[in-house]
Amino acid sequence: MLEGKAKVEETDMPVKMQMQAMRIASQSLDLFDVFDCTSIAAHIKKEFDERYGSGWQCVVGTNFGCFFTHSKGTFIYFHLGTLNFLIFKGATL
To answer: Short name of one Pfam family for this protein (predicted)?
Structure first.
């Protein structure tokens, strides 16, 4: 388990939610192969949807670009091991 070894790059999430994101990401790496980024992302999204309501998005990988609008207080971007994690809740229009 890599819990506690994550490095947050950018976030506006409350600290408790940040810790939850990193814990779930670490658990995902125990459940899935590190190269199965789609399953890792799906697992994290499912956990966040269950805990904090639907509308969460998750991107996992080693090299990606993105541009998005998110709800205030729901964004985190961090590294864990060799992977980057982007989790956010989409903004409502």
So the answer is: Dynein_light
